[in-house]
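Exercise 7.
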Amino acid sequence: MEALGTVEIVFFDLETTVPRKPGQRFWVLEFGAIVVCPRKLVELESYCTLIKPKDLSAVALKSTRSDGITREAVENAPEFEEVADEIFRILNGRVWAGHNIQRFDCARIKEAFAEIGKPAPLPVGMIDSLGVLTEKFGRRAGNMKMATLASYFGLGQQKHRSLDDVRMNLEVLKHCATVLFLESSLPNVLNSKWPNRSLTMTTRSRSNGKLPCREETRRKSPPTSLALGHQRTVPYTRGSLGKVTESVKNLLCKSQGNQSLNTLLKHSHSLLR
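Solution. The predicted structure, written as C-alpha cells, is:
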C-alpha cells in the first residue's frame, strides 16, 4: 500500500447518446473508471456500469457510436441516480484523467448530477491526455483521437466501451511517455534526420535488382559515426567503397547460418584491416 496522503489518479470515460437535433441533450449510457497509483501506474480498482437514460428514445436501436450499447442493452440498467453515489466516491478528491475530458466528460458529469439535485464530485487536479499529447507528442501519429494513437502504437482498435477505453488511454500515455523520454535522453541522435541519403541510394542501386540479404533489409538506422556527426578515418580509399560494401554484404549473407557472433566479428575485422 502507498503512504497515506498520496493522491490517486482516476482515469474515466463516458459513453453517451449523440444528439440528432439542435437542443437535444447528451444522455450518459455508460460510466467506466480505473483508479491508478501515480507512483507505479498500476490499477488499484475499477468500476463500470451501464446507465438507463430518462429518454430511451434517444438511444439508437442498433449500435452506432458505442459498440454494443443499444436501447436493449440499457433498458434494464440502473438510472443515474441509483449509481450516483458510487460514481461520486470514485471521482471526488482525486486527480481526474482521460482523453478530451475537459471539454466533454466533465461537462456531462456536472449535468447528470445537477439533474438529480446532488453536488457533483470535484477533482484535485486534471490530466487531459488530448491536451497533454497535442503539446508534448505533436501530431506525428496523425490526428489526436484515441483510436489513431492506439493504432500508431499497435494497441488494437478502440472499442468505445468505457472500461476498455480508459485502460487503452493509460497504455497510450505510457507509450508516448517512453518515446519522449528516449528522445530527451538522446536528442541529437533520435531526433536527427538520415545524414547521407545519397549513400543509402547508391548502396541499394548496387543490388542489381536482387533481393538483399536479411541483415541488409533490417538495417534502417544510420551508422553511429554518421548519426553523431563525426568523420571517421577509414582504412580504404573512397573509390573502393563500393567493393568494400559488396564484400561486407556477401560476408553477412554467408554468416546467417550457425556461425557464432565472434566468428562474424573476426572476419569483419580482418576484412577492414
